[in-house]
Amino acid sequence: MEHIIDTEKLRVVKGPRPDGELHTNAIGRKVVPEVKPAIDPATHRYTGRTVTADAVTWTVEAISAEEQAERIKQILVDAVQQHLDTTAQARSYDGIQSLCSYATSADPVFAAEGQAGVVWRDAVWSYCYQVLADCQAGARPVPTAEELIAELPAMVWP
Fold this sequence. Notes:
Layout: E1 2-6, E2 11-13, E3 23-24, E4 30-35, E5 44-51, E6 56-62, H1 65-89, H2 96-101, H3 108-136, H4 145-151
Antiparallel strand pairs: 1-2, 1-4, 3-4, 5-6
Helix pairs in contact: 1-3, 1-4
């Protein structure tokens, strides 16, 4: 997000200049654009911000290999969970948990959909965790979230 910092008062003032150049605000104070650098959250993190008379800088550091592995795992797991929920929501369920709760419904249509949801959810998580284990063992490269979703078993609605 870009905004303008008043370097004397160290506060945000209205409106960034579209060209990002330094300029003077209405009361004559020099202001500088602040642009937070883009990072890959799986490999880097923001560790600080410094405001000077001429610039606003962000400190970025690489994270450890162990933390990278954990972050990548979390990104993939979150993507899979979202995929499960979105698929269930396409049939007007609140999410995968709601869909699966209908497995014991007295209504045969809801019961069949709920059971199909349980079978699919189990297959998806089994596949996901096998992929993560294979990646950790070095047996395959780490997929992107989109690649992993494309590999997952498809939901078969009754």
